[in-house]
Amino acid sequence: MPLAHLDSLEGLLPGRIGYPGSVMHDRSRTVFNVAARSRSPALVIRPLNADQVGIVLRWAADNNERLSVRSGGHSFDGFPVRDGGVLLDLQEICAIRYDERTQHIHVGPGAVIRDIAVPLAKAGRVLPLGECPTVAIGGLVAGGGLGYSGRHLGLAMDALVAVTIVTPDGQCRVANAQQNTDLFWACRGGGGCAGIMTELVFETIALDTLTAITITWRWQAAEEAIHLHSTLMQSAPDKLDLKLKIRTTGADRFLDMSVSGPSDAIPGTPQIHIDGQFLGPLEEARRILLPLLENDNVLTATVHRANYLDAMLELVAIDLLNNPAPPTLRPVRVASDFGAGPVSRDDARALVGFVDYLQNDPDVMGGAVLIEPCNGAIGRIENEASPYAHRNADVLYQWELFTPQPQDALLTARHDHLLEKTRAALGSHVTGGRYLNYADQLDNHVHYWGDNLERLRSIAAQFDPASTLRSRMIP
User: Which CB contacts under 8 angstroms, 24+ apart, belong to 403-409?
Assistant: First the structure.
Protein backbone atom coordinates (compact mmCIF):
# COMPACT_ATOMS: atom_id res chain seq x y z
CA MET A 1 0.00 0.00 0.00
CA PRO A 2 1.59 3.34 -1.03
CA LEU A 3 2.87 5.36 1.91
CA ALA A 4 1.11 8.49 0.65
CA HIS A 5 -2.24 6.70 1.00
CA LEU A 6 -1.49 5.93 4.63
CA ASP A 7 -0.20 9.42 5.42
CA SER A 8 -3.45 10.93 4.17
CA LEU A 9 -5.48 8.54 6.28
CA GLU A 10 -3.36 9.10 9.39
CA GLY A 11 -3.95 12.82 9.04
CA LEU A 12 -7.72 12.30 8.90
CA LEU A 13 -7.93 9.71 11.70
CA PRO A 14 -5.02 10.16 14.12
CA GLY A 15 -4.72 7.33 16.59
CA ARG A 16 -7.38 5.23 14.86
CA ILE A 17 -5.08 3.11 12.69
CA GLY A 18 -3.25 -0.03 13.76
CA TYR A 19 -0.32 -1.61 11.93
CA PRO A 20 1.02 -5.16 12.30
CA GLY A 21 2.68 -5.55 15.69
CA SER A 22 0.58 -2.87 17.39
CA VAL A 23 -1.84 -3.56 20.22
CA MET A 24 -4.76 -2.22 18.16
CA HIS A 25 -3.90 -4.50 15.25
CA ASP A 26 -3.62 -7.58 17.45
CA ARG A 27 -6.89 -6.88 19.23
CA SER A 28 -8.79 -6.30 16.01
CA ARG A 29 -7.66 -9.55 14.37
CA THR A 30 -8.23 -11.60 17.53
CA VAL A 31 -11.65 -12.95 16.62
CA PHE A 32 -13.71 -16.01 17.54
CA ASN A 33 -12.35 -18.11 14.67
CA VAL A 34 -9.03 -19.65 15.71
CA ALA A 35 -7.62 -19.91 12.17
CA ALA A 36 -8.30 -16.23 11.47
CA ARG A 37 -6.14 -15.15 14.41
CA SER A 38 -3.04 -16.12 12.43
CA ARG A 39 -3.98 -13.87 9.49
CA SER A 40 -2.47 -10.40 9.32
CA PRO A 41 -4.29 -7.47 7.69
CA ALA A 42 -2.08 -4.73 6.26
CA LEU A 43 -3.78 -2.35 8.67
CA VAL A 44 -6.84 -2.06 10.85
CA ILE A 45 -8.98 1.06 11.27
CA ARG A 46 -11.10 1.65 14.36
CA PRO A 47 -13.55 4.51 13.80
CA LEU A 48 -15.47 6.04 16.68
CA ASN A 49 -18.59 7.29 14.88
CA ALA A 50 -20.44 7.58 11.58
CA ASP A 51 -18.41 10.61 10.49
CA GLN A 52 -15.18 8.65 10.81
CA VAL A 53 -16.71 5.71 8.93
CA GLY A 54 -17.52 8.15 6.12
CA ILE A 55 -13.91 9.37 6.08
CA VAL A 56 -12.66 5.80 5.77
CA LEU A 57 -15.06 4.97 2.95
CA ARG A 58 -14.15 8.09 0.98
CA TRP A 59 -10.45 7.35 1.47
CA ALA A 60 -10.94 3.76 0.28
CA ALA A 61 -12.84 4.90 -2.82
CA ASP A 62 -10.24 7.55 -3.68
CA ASN A 63 -7.39 5.04 -3.40
CA ASN A 64 -9.05 1.95 -4.85
CA GLU A 65 -8.81 0.08 -1.56
CA ARG A 66 -11.31 -2.55 -0.45
CA LEU A 67 -12.50 -2.94 3.14
CA SER A 68 -13.65 -5.90 5.17
CA VAL A 69 -15.79 -5.10 8.20
CA ARG A 70 -16.11 -6.67 11.65
CA SER A 71 -18.50 -5.72 14.41
CA GLY A 72 -18.05 -8.34 17.13
CA GLY A 73 -15.66 -10.62 15.27
CA HIS A 74 -17.86 -13.67 15.77
CA SER A 75 -18.20 -14.89 12.17
CA PHE A 76 -17.46 -18.60 12.39
CA ASP A 77 -15.02 -18.62 9.46
CA GLY A 78 -13.32 -15.35 10.47
CA PHE A 79 -14.26 -13.85 7.09
CA PRO A 80 -13.36 -10.18 7.84
CA VAL A 81 -9.76 -10.92 8.89
CA ARG A 82 -7.77 -11.22 5.67
CA ASP A 83 -4.06 -11.37 5.03
CA GLY A 84 -2.85 -8.09 3.51
CA GLY A 85 -6.30 -6.50 3.57
CA VAL A 86 -7.79 -3.45 5.27
CA LEU A 87 -9.94 -4.34 8.26
CA LEU A 88 -12.54 -1.83 9.44
CA ASP A 89 -13.25 -2.65 13.09
CA LEU A 90 -16.54 -1.30 14.48
CA GLN A 91 -16.07 -2.53 18.06
CA GLU A 92 -15.91 0.98 19.49
CA ILE A 93 -19.15 2.10 17.84
CA CYS A 94 -21.07 0.37 20.58
CA ALA A 95 -23.23 2.95 22.38
CA ILE A 96 -26.55 1.69 23.77
CA ARG A 97 -29.45 4.00 24.58
CA TYR A 98 -32.96 2.98 25.62
CA ASP A 99 -35.62 5.62 24.87
CA GLU A 100 -38.33 5.44 27.54
CA ARG A 101 -40.71 7.56 25.47
CA THR A 102 -40.68 5.46 22.29
CA GLN A 103 -39.59 2.23 24.02
CA HIS A 104 -37.03 1.83 21.24
CA ILE A 105 -33.43 0.87 21.87
CA HIS A 106 -30.65 2.56 19.87
CA VAL A 107 -27.42 0.56 19.53
CA GLY A 108 -24.12 0.76 17.69
CA PRO A 109 -23.11 -2.19 15.49
CA GLY A 110 -20.30 -3.19 17.85
CA ALA A 111 -22.61 -3.57 20.88
CA VAL A 112 -22.81 -7.21 21.99
CA ILE A 113 -26.12 -8.79 22.88
CA ARG A 114 -25.15 -9.38 26.53
CA ASP A 115 -24.72 -5.61 26.99
CA ILE A 116 -27.90 -4.81 25.06
CA ALA A 117 -29.88 -7.10 27.36
CA VAL A 118 -28.89 -5.14 30.48
CA PRO A 119 -30.95 -1.95 29.89
CA LEU A 120 -33.75 -4.03 28.41
CA ALA A 121 -33.97 -6.14 31.56
CA LYS A 122 -34.06 -2.98 33.71
CA ALA A 123 -36.92 -1.61 31.60
CA GLY A 124 -38.85 -4.90 31.59
CA ARG A 125 -38.51 -5.08 27.81
CA VAL A 126 -37.07 -7.65 25.40
CA LEU A 127 -35.76 -7.89 21.87
CA PRO A 128 -35.23 -11.09 19.87
CA LEU A 129 -31.48 -11.54 20.17
CA GLY A 130 -29.00 -14.28 19.36
CA GLU A 131 -27.87 -17.05 21.67
CA CYS A 132 -24.21 -16.26 22.29
CA PRO A 133 -23.68 -13.26 24.62
CA THR A 134 -20.59 -12.00 22.79
CA VAL A 135 -22.18 -11.73 19.33
CA ALA A 136 -22.41 -8.10 18.16
CA ILE A 137 -25.70 -6.76 16.86
CA GLY A 138 -24.34 -5.48 13.52
CA GLY A 139 -23.33 -8.89 12.22
CA LEU A 140 -26.37 -10.58 13.76
CA VAL A 141 -28.79 -8.34 11.85
CA ALA A 142 -26.75 -8.44 8.63
CA GLY A 143 -27.26 -12.21 8.58
CA GLY A 144 -30.84 -12.32 9.83
CA GLY A 145 -30.73 -12.81 13.59
CA LEU A 146 -31.91 -16.23 14.76
CA GLY A 147 -31.98 -16.73 18.51
CA TYR A 148 -33.98 -17.58 21.59
CA SER A 149 -37.64 -16.46 21.51
CA GLY A 150 -37.60 -16.26 17.70
CA ARG A 151 -40.71 -18.41 17.33
CA HIS A 152 -42.69 -15.76 19.24
CA LEU A 153 -40.83 -12.52 18.49
CA GLY A 154 -39.27 -13.23 15.10
CA LEU A 155 -35.72 -12.55 13.96
CA ALA A 156 -33.58 -9.75 15.40
CA MET A 157 -33.83 -7.96 12.05
CA ASP A 158 -37.64 -8.14 12.19
CA ALA A 159 -37.59 -5.76 15.17
CA LEU A 160 -35.42 -3.22 13.33
CA VAL A 161 -37.34 0.02 12.67
CA ALA A 162 -34.56 2.30 11.44
CA VAL A 163 -30.87 2.31 10.70
CA THR A 164 -28.21 4.93 10.13
CA ILE A 165 -25.99 3.66 7.34
CA VAL A 166 -22.91 5.07 5.68
CA THR A 167 -22.79 4.11 2.01
CA PRO A 168 -19.51 3.62 0.09
CA ASP A 169 -19.67 7.19 -1.29
CA GLY A 170 -19.17 8.36 2.30
CA GLN A 171 -22.73 9.67 2.72
CA CYS A 172 -24.58 9.07 5.99
CA ARG A 173 -28.23 8.15 5.44
CA VAL A 174 -31.20 7.15 7.55
CA ALA A 175 -33.13 4.17 6.22
CA ASN A 176 -36.50 2.88 7.40
CA ALA A 177 -39.85 1.80 5.99
CA GLN A 178 -40.51 5.32 4.61
CA GLN A 179 -37.12 6.54 3.34
CA ASN A 180 -34.22 4.86 1.60
CA THR A 181 -36.37 1.77 1.53
CA ASP A 182 -34.04 -0.26 -0.68
CA LEU A 183 -31.20 0.28 1.76
CA PHE A 184 -33.45 -0.64 4.68
CA TRP A 185 -34.45 -3.82 2.83
CA ALA A 186 -30.80 -4.74 2.15
CA CYS A 187 -29.69 -4.13 5.76
CA ARG A 188 -31.90 -6.94 7.07
CA GLY A 189 -30.09 -10.14 6.12
CA GLY A 190 -28.13 -8.77 3.16
CA GLY A 191 -24.69 -9.38 4.62
CA GLY A 192 -23.53 -5.76 4.64
CA CYS A 193 -23.09 -5.46 0.87
CA ALA A 194 -24.57 -1.95 0.44
CA GLY A 195 -23.14 0.08 3.32
CA ILE A 196 -22.01 0.13 6.94
CA MET A 197 -24.61 0.44 9.68
CA THR A 198 -23.54 2.82 12.44
CA GLU A 199 -26.74 2.92 14.51
CA LEU A 200 -29.60 0.42 14.66
CA VAL A 201 -32.97 1.24 16.22
CA PHE A 202 -35.21 -1.59 17.44
CA GLU A 203 -38.76 -1.85 18.65
CA THR A 204 -38.90 -3.64 22.00
CA ILE A 205 -41.58 -5.79 23.63
CA ALA A 206 -42.79 -5.73 27.24
CA LEU A 207 -41.65 -8.81 29.16
CA ASP A 208 -40.42 -8.91 32.73
CA THR A 209 -39.69 -12.58 33.40
CA LEU A 210 -39.86 -15.80 31.44
CA THR A 211 -39.51 -19.52 32.02
CA ALA A 212 -36.02 -20.91 31.39
CA ILE A 213 -35.70 -24.58 30.45
CA THR A 214 -32.72 -26.97 30.49
CA ILE A 215 -32.98 -30.72 29.90
CA THR A 216 -30.24 -33.31 29.38
CA TRP A 217 -30.96 -36.67 27.76
CA ARG A 218 -29.46 -40.14 27.56
CA TRP A 219 -27.34 -40.58 24.41
CA GLN A 220 -28.58 -44.12 23.82
CA ALA A 221 -32.05 -42.66 23.16
CA ALA A 222 -30.86 -39.82 20.93
CA GLU A 223 -33.22 -40.65 18.06
CA GLU A 224 -36.19 -40.48 20.41
CA ALA A 225 -35.02 -37.11 21.78
CA ILE A 226 -34.82 -35.68 18.26
CA HIS A 227 -38.21 -37.07 17.27
CA LEU A 228 -39.96 -35.82 20.43
CA HIS A 229 -38.30 -32.40 20.14
CA SER A 230 -39.45 -32.06 16.52
CA THR A 231 -42.99 -33.23 17.28
CA LEU A 232 -43.28 -30.77 20.15
CA MET A 233 -41.91 -27.83 18.17
CA GLN A 234 -44.31 -28.50 15.30
CA SER A 235 -47.35 -28.18 17.57
CA ALA A 236 -46.31 -26.09 20.58
CA PRO A 237 -47.42 -22.48 20.95
CA ASP A 238 -44.99 -19.89 19.60
CA LYS A 239 -44.16 -18.84 23.15
CA LEU A 240 -42.02 -21.98 23.46
CA ASP A 241 -38.59 -22.03 21.80
CA LEU A 242 -36.41 -25.07 22.50
CA LYS A 243 -33.11 -25.93 20.86
CA LEU A 244 -31.56 -29.38 20.82
CA LYS A 245 -27.78 -29.73 20.84
CA ILE A 246 -25.71 -32.91 20.56
CA ARG A 247 -21.97 -32.48 21.13
CA THR A 248 -19.12 -34.93 21.18
CA THR A 249 -17.10 -35.11 24.41
CA GLY A 250 -13.69 -36.35 25.45
CA ALA A 251 -10.24 -34.84 25.86
CA ASP A 252 -9.73 -34.48 22.09
CA ARG A 253 -13.36 -34.06 20.97
CA PHE A 254 -14.93 -31.22 22.93
CA LEU A 255 -15.30 -27.59 21.84
CA ASP A 256 -13.29 -26.37 24.84
CA MET A 257 -9.80 -27.85 24.61
CA SER A 258 -9.23 -27.41 28.36
CA VAL A 259 -11.92 -29.91 29.43
CA SER A 260 -13.44 -33.20 28.27
CA GLY A 261 -16.97 -31.83 28.27
CA PRO A 262 -19.64 -30.39 30.57
CA SER A 263 -19.46 -31.50 34.19
CA ASP A 264 -22.59 -33.64 33.81
CA ALA A 265 -21.39 -35.38 30.61
CA ILE A 266 -19.75 -38.79 30.29
CA PRO A 267 -16.49 -38.16 28.41
CA GLY A 268 -16.48 -40.13 25.18
CA THR A 269 -20.27 -40.18 24.97
CA PRO A 270 -22.10 -37.40 23.09
CA GLN A 271 -24.14 -35.11 25.32
CA ILE A 272 -27.72 -34.22 24.41
CA HIS A 273 -28.72 -30.80 25.75
CA ILE A 274 -32.17 -29.28 25.22
CA ASP A 275 -32.57 -25.68 26.31
CA GLY A 276 -34.75 -22.69 25.66
CA GLN A 277 -37.39 -20.28 26.84
CA PHE A 278 -41.11 -20.17 27.35
CA LEU A 279 -42.55 -16.66 27.33
CA GLY A 280 -45.32 -17.54 29.73
CA PRO A 281 -46.11 -18.98 33.19
CA LEU A 282 -44.14 -21.79 34.80
CA GLU A 283 -47.05 -24.20 35.16
CA GLU A 284 -48.11 -23.78 31.54
CA ALA A 285 -44.53 -24.51 30.47
CA ARG A 286 -44.47 -27.68 32.55
CA ARG A 287 -47.73 -28.86 31.01
CA ILE A 288 -46.51 -28.33 27.44
CA LEU A 289 -43.16 -29.98 28.23
CA LEU A 290 -44.65 -33.15 29.73
CA PRO A 291 -43.71 -35.39 26.76
CA LEU A 292 -40.08 -34.49 27.41
CA LEU A 293 -40.06 -34.13 31.19
CA GLU A 294 -41.77 -37.46 31.90
CA ASN A 295 -39.64 -39.51 29.53
CA ASP A 296 -37.46 -42.18 31.18
CA ASN A 297 -34.44 -41.03 29.17
CA VAL A 298 -34.25 -37.60 30.84
CA LEU A 299 -31.12 -37.27 32.95
CA THR A 300 -31.68 -33.77 34.37
CA ALA A 301 -34.40 -31.15 33.98
CA THR A 302 -34.65 -27.57 35.23
CA VAL A 303 -37.69 -25.37 34.57
CA HIS A 304 -37.82 -22.09 36.47
CA ARG A 305 -38.59 -18.38 36.24
CA ALA A 306 -35.84 -15.90 35.34
CA ASN A 307 -35.48 -12.42 33.93
CA TYR A 308 -34.44 -12.03 30.32
CA LEU A 309 -30.78 -11.27 31.02
CA ASP A 310 -30.28 -14.09 33.54
CA ALA A 311 -31.98 -16.57 31.22
CA MET A 312 -29.72 -15.56 28.33
CA LEU A 313 -26.57 -16.11 30.37
CA GLU A 314 -27.84 -19.29 32.01
CA LEU A 315 -28.70 -21.01 28.74
CA VAL A 316 -25.13 -20.74 27.45
CA ALA A 317 -24.22 -24.33 28.16
CA ILE A 318 -20.49 -23.92 27.47
CA ASP A 319 -18.61 -21.32 29.52
CA LEU A 320 -16.06 -20.38 26.86
CA LEU A 321 -18.86 -18.94 24.68
CA ASN A 322 -18.97 -16.01 27.09
CA ASN A 323 -15.53 -14.98 25.77
CA PRO A 324 -15.41 -13.15 22.41
CA ALA A 325 -12.14 -14.91 21.47
CA PRO A 326 -11.70 -17.82 23.87
CA PRO A 327 -8.09 -19.03 24.02
CA THR A 328 -9.08 -22.69 24.55
CA LEU A 329 -11.58 -22.86 21.68
CA ARG A 330 -10.95 -25.81 19.41
CA PRO A 331 -10.69 -24.80 15.75
CA VAL A 332 -14.13 -25.37 14.28
CA ARG A 333 -15.80 -25.27 10.91
CA VAL A 334 -19.50 -24.44 10.93
CA ALA A 335 -22.04 -25.16 8.18
CA SER A 336 -25.84 -25.19 8.08
CA ASP A 337 -29.03 -26.36 6.42
CA PHE A 338 -32.64 -25.26 6.70
CA GLY A 339 -35.26 -28.00 6.96
CA ALA A 340 -39.00 -27.92 6.31
CA GLY A 341 -41.61 -30.09 7.99
CA PRO A 342 -41.21 -32.51 10.88
CA VAL A 343 -38.06 -34.53 11.46
CA SER A 344 -38.86 -38.12 10.53
CA ARG A 345 -37.44 -41.20 12.23
CA ASP A 346 -35.09 -41.65 9.25
CA ASP A 347 -33.98 -38.02 9.55
CA ALA A 348 -33.27 -38.51 13.26
CA ARG A 349 -31.22 -41.59 12.44
CA ALA A 350 -29.13 -39.59 9.96
CA LEU A 351 -28.51 -36.85 12.55
CA VAL A 352 -27.44 -39.38 15.17
CA GLY A 353 -25.16 -41.02 12.61
CA PHE A 354 -23.50 -37.67 11.92
CA VAL A 355 -22.59 -37.19 15.60
CA ASP A 356 -21.72 -40.85 16.14
CA TYR A 357 -19.18 -40.64 13.32
CA LEU A 358 -17.61 -37.50 14.79
CA GLN A 359 -17.44 -39.09 18.23
CA ASN A 360 -15.99 -42.48 17.31
CA ASP A 361 -14.08 -42.36 14.03
CA PRO A 362 -10.35 -42.04 14.85
CA ASP A 363 -9.68 -40.04 11.68
CA VAL A 364 -11.87 -37.07 12.67
CA MET A 365 -11.79 -34.73 15.66
CA GLY A 366 -15.33 -34.38 16.96
CA GLY A 367 -18.10 -31.84 16.51
CA ALA A 368 -21.79 -31.28 17.01
CA VAL A 369 -25.21 -30.79 15.49
CA LEU A 370 -27.48 -28.04 16.80
CA ILE A 371 -31.17 -28.16 15.91
CA GLU A 372 -32.88 -24.77 16.11
CA PRO A 373 -36.61 -24.22 15.42
CA CYS A 374 -37.26 -21.28 13.09
CA ASN A 375 -40.99 -21.41 12.42
CA GLY A 376 -43.79 -19.56 14.23
CA ALA A 377 -43.50 -15.77 14.02
CA ILE A 378 -40.49 -16.02 11.70
CA GLY A 379 -42.65 -17.68 9.06
CA ARG A 380 -45.48 -15.16 9.22
CA ILE A 381 -43.52 -12.60 7.19
CA GLU A 382 -43.20 -12.82 3.42
CA ASN A 383 -39.89 -14.06 2.00
CA GLU A 384 -39.69 -10.94 -0.18
CA ALA A 385 -39.81 -8.58 2.83
CA SER A 386 -36.02 -8.80 3.24
CA PRO A 387 -33.06 -10.61 1.69
CA TYR A 388 -33.51 -13.43 4.24
CA ALA A 389 -35.19 -16.12 2.13
CA HIS A 390 -35.97 -18.91 4.62
CA ARG A 391 -39.36 -18.04 6.06
CA ASN A 392 -40.73 -21.38 4.87
CA ALA A 393 -38.31 -23.39 7.04
CA ASP A 394 -39.20 -25.08 10.31
CA VAL A 395 -35.72 -25.85 11.59
CA LEU A 396 -32.09 -24.86 11.14
CA TYR A 397 -29.30 -27.41 11.47
CA GLN A 398 -25.89 -26.12 12.52
CA TRP A 399 -23.10 -28.56 11.76
CA GLU A 400 -19.90 -28.16 13.79
CA LEU A 401 -16.75 -29.94 12.62
CA PHE A 402 -13.56 -29.65 14.65
CA THR A 403 -10.41 -29.13 12.62
CA PRO A 404 -6.64 -29.00 13.14
CA GLN A 405 -4.66 -25.80 12.83
CA PRO A 406 -3.39 -25.42 10.16
CA GLN A 407 -6.05 -27.08 8.04
CA ASP A 408 -5.58 -30.65 6.82
CA ALA A 409 -6.73 -31.23 3.23
CA LEU A 410 -7.63 -34.89 3.79
CA LEU A 411 -9.78 -34.10 6.84
CA THR A 412 -11.45 -31.24 4.95
CA ALA A 413 -12.38 -33.71 2.22
CA ARG A 414 -13.77 -36.12 4.83
CA HIS A 415 -15.88 -33.32 6.28
CA ASP A 416 -17.14 -32.32 2.83
CA HIS A 417 -18.15 -35.93 2.20
CA LEU A 418 -19.85 -36.19 5.60
CA LEU A 419 -21.90 -33.06 4.94
CA GLU A 420 -22.91 -34.28 1.48
CA LYS A 421 -23.82 -37.72 2.84
CA THR A 422 -25.92 -36.25 5.67
CA ARG A 423 -27.70 -33.84 3.33
CA ALA A 424 -28.49 -36.71 0.97
CA ALA A 425 -29.87 -38.76 3.87
CA LEU A 426 -32.13 -35.87 4.91
CA GLY A 427 -33.41 -35.72 1.33
CA SER A 428 -36.30 -33.39 0.59
CA HIS A 429 -36.51 -32.38 4.25
CA VAL A 430 -33.66 -29.91 3.66
CA THR A 431 -34.76 -26.93 1.59
CA GLY A 432 -31.46 -26.04 -0.09
CA GLY A 433 -31.28 -22.87 2.01
CA ARG A 434 -28.38 -22.11 4.34
CA TYR A 435 -27.88 -19.47 7.01
CA LEU A 436 -25.62 -16.57 6.09
CA ASN A 437 -24.23 -16.26 9.61
CA TYR A 438 -23.01 -19.89 9.42
CA ALA A 439 -21.33 -19.43 6.02
CA ASP A 440 -19.33 -22.38 4.73
CA GLN A 441 -17.02 -23.08 1.79
CA LEU A 442 -19.61 -25.38 0.17
CA ASP A 443 -22.24 -22.60 0.05
CA ASN A 444 -23.15 -20.22 -2.76
CA HIS A 445 -25.24 -17.06 -3.04
CA VAL A 446 -28.45 -18.89 -3.93
CA HIS A 447 -28.19 -20.92 -0.72
CA TYR A 448 -28.29 -17.68 1.28
CA TRP A 449 -30.68 -15.44 -0.63
CA GLY A 450 -32.68 -17.64 -3.00
CA ASP A 451 -35.13 -15.67 -5.12
CA ASN A 452 -34.08 -12.43 -3.38
CA LEU A 453 -30.58 -12.59 -4.79
CA GLU A 454 -31.11 -10.48 -7.91
CA ARG A 455 -32.73 -7.60 -6.02
CA LEU A 456 -29.91 -7.64 -3.48
CA ARG A 457 -27.30 -7.63 -6.25
CA SER A 458 -29.02 -4.67 -7.85
CA ILE A 459 -29.02 -2.65 -4.61
CA ALA A 460 -25.38 -3.51 -3.91
CA ALA A 461 -24.41 -2.40 -7.43
CA GLN A 462 -26.34 0.86 -7.00
CA PHE A 463 -24.70 1.88 -3.72
CA ASP A 464 -21.31 0.19 -4.07
CA PRO A 465 -20.52 0.06 -7.80
CA ALA A 466 -16.76 -0.23 -7.18
CA SER A 467 -17.21 -3.11 -4.67
CA THR A 468 -15.37 -1.16 -1.97
CA LEU A 469 -16.94 -3.39 0.68
CA ARG A 470 -15.96 -7.02 0.91
CA SER A 471 -19.06 -9.08 1.64
CA ARG A 472 -20.37 -12.60 1.25
CA MET A 473 -21.72 -11.47 -2.11
CA ILE A 474 -18.46 -9.92 -3.39
CA PRO A 475 -15.57 -11.24 -1.27
Answer: 403/35, 403/331, 403/332, 403/333, 403/365, 404/331, 404/365, 405/34, 405/35, 405/38, 405/331, 406/35, 407/35
